[in-house]
Amino acid sequence: MTLHATFSPDTPADLGPECASSFNPALMAEMPQLLREAAQIIAGLSEAEAIEVARSVTQLATRTVWTARAPDLALRTFPCAAVEPEVMPLPVRALALKAGQLAASVPASQAIWMLGALYTALLPRSVRKTQGIYYTPPALAALMVNRASDVGTDWHTARIIDPACGAGALLHPALERMLASLAGHEAQHVLDEIGRRLRGVDLDPVAAWLAQVGIDMRLLPWCRRAKRPAPRVIHARDGLMPGARRDTSTWCSAIRPMARFGSTPRAGPGSRAASAAVPTSMRCSSSGPSSWRAPAAC
User: Which ranges carry the DNA methylase adenine-specific domain (predicted)?
Assistant: First the structure.
């Protein structure tokens, strides 16, 4: 059996039979076309413009999914400047909305994998290459978690960290094992345990945001019962920095009282150092008008 260890937007049609067999057929049928459209959209754009497109499409697509799943709850604040839908060219807006509507029809883990794959495909190849942005396919993530169970991992007590989590492909099957081990417990206890024992870190703030939103989506039933937001378990920083290692040893849940259900706490201690570690091309900052945007209405 051939197991594809990485998913590359450069070969969108080759998603792997193991991945396809466990995924929603409609999702797998649409993904190659979505990724081809993404490649066409960024063709000819500068690196900075392509990154802005990737972020803007990701924000709108994810917002579309969240609105369909939890219209009464606030989506976590997007970490970067992004172009609003009314300013996007029609093909860009159409791609984001189509992706969001498709992702809204599948389970949270599949939705976030799809949005992460689309985000990756919209990034310039130079950025993907220099930053090593190639996401783990769900089939491989599931296999790794199964192997962890085979060697005796106790999901009642296990603490899991992915120091380069991307959009959270490895964290979702681990989360499912944790939730299964917590069946029958009060919602408050489930959220506390997930906040204490699950952690993801990534240099890319948009990927980290996607991973966190995916966790938020999966935990919605428990959040509704407990009347509280999901714990923040994903952080945008360097997972190999000394500060990040200290943080993972303390396993601070980063949960604070929030005025509004679903608001996002700001990064805690170490965030300044973490920001410095993020590659310049991937840092979040406000930018001026770009040539790819639709002209403003008179």
Answer: 115-181
Q: Tokens 């769900």 — which residue?
A: 138
Judging by DSSP bridges, how do beta strands 198-202 and 234-236 pair with one another?
A: parallel
Got the DSSP string for 265-287?
PPP-TTHHHHHHHS-GGGS----
214 in helix, strand or coil? helix
The residue type at 180:
A
Single out the residue of 113, 141, 117 nearest to residue 218, CA to CA. 113
Tokens of 115: 């949005």
What is the tens place of the pLDDT at every residue in 153-196?
A: 999 999 999 999 999 999 999 999 999 999 999 999 999 999 99
Quick one: DSSP state of residue 76? P
Is the pTM higher than 0.70? yes
Contacts of 163 (CB under 8 A, 6+ apart): 201, 239, 240, 244
The angle that helices 205-218 and 171-181 make with each other, rounded to 10 degrees, is: 30
